Model the fold of this input.
Amino acid sequence: MPLTSLDISNLRNIEKTALHCHSSLNVIVGANGSGKSSLLEAIYLLGRGRSFRTSSHRSIVQNGQKEIFIVGKTTEQSAQFIGIHISDGNLKAKANGQYLSKSSQLALILPLLMISPDADKLILGSPKQRRRFIDWGLFHVEQGYLTQWKRYNRVLTQRNTLLRQGACEETRYWDEQLITHANNLTQARMEYCMALEEIFQDYLALLTSGLQLDLSYRPGWSADETFSTALSQGLERDIKSGFTQKGPHRADLYITTHNRKAASYLSGGQQKLAACALILAQAKLLNERLGNTGVLLVDDLPAELDLNHRQNFLALLRELGSQLFVTTTEESLLPLDSFSDYSVFHVEHGQVSAIKKT
Done:
């Protein structure tokens, strides 16, 4: 369900612009600071309901203006128009004129993934970042997963409240529910990670030379015990700390090389390529499960890869079939021979102009 058009008003240095988007590849060219990443930010807001650059909605409003408007038209019949309005630091979203109450509704209309210069945080960052990565994928491919995730977190919150009150006997009632939801959550995550790992290995082999990495899902408690045992044996420690220390909320997608944590041994380039392989694997899995190509944003691709890797990477992007928005400082840095049809936009001081459509 690609974007067919994008209208932006008052986002950072973009006062007003309108784009007719190519269904395959959109190349956005401009110097650093020109506003090309702000175009990606606008699309990200449409699909995620938040910025990938800041948690403050106020900070992205153009100086001297009070509000931002972003409107995207999609090929999705149930929600052809998506609108974002930001004012006084508050974001409101609409689809076909109807207000949306949750950001997850945006994600269903416009599923999108992003590869940015800090994509290596997927390898180097905290387990929380990798859990979000897994949960985003499952939200799209597993019906009812979001409901299950919410149930687990609701019961977890209740248990933590009782722990802080020292009501250890009352936690037993909630433990039964927590165990049920935790096991369901863990089963779904493990199956998803197994499917992801197979595709990841294929992309890793295509992007790198001889790099060996393994993915394994760690559920948030020891593999040699059940979650029920982990809860009962950790109760005293949980009461002292005031929160549940084991469970799916502490899970991780563990990435290793030769049985060692990959983040400690990979070079910067290898970390970025591994992250790219993970994100491409997730995009392909989404396509296979839903027949939905979605949108893939790639910010400053040449800064991430050398020429050979750029050629390989762009070929993989074309085969993936997602609608692509790729930023670069110079069009010549992108070997686009594998694309027969694409659009190019030039950005300068927040002004956007279409310079090529093939």
In short: Residues 171-207 form the longest helix (37 residues). Residues 24 and 323 are 5 Å apart (CA to CA). Residues 1-111+294-358 form a domain with the Rossmann fold fold (CATH 3.40.50.300). The chain has two domains: 1-111+294-358, 120-291.
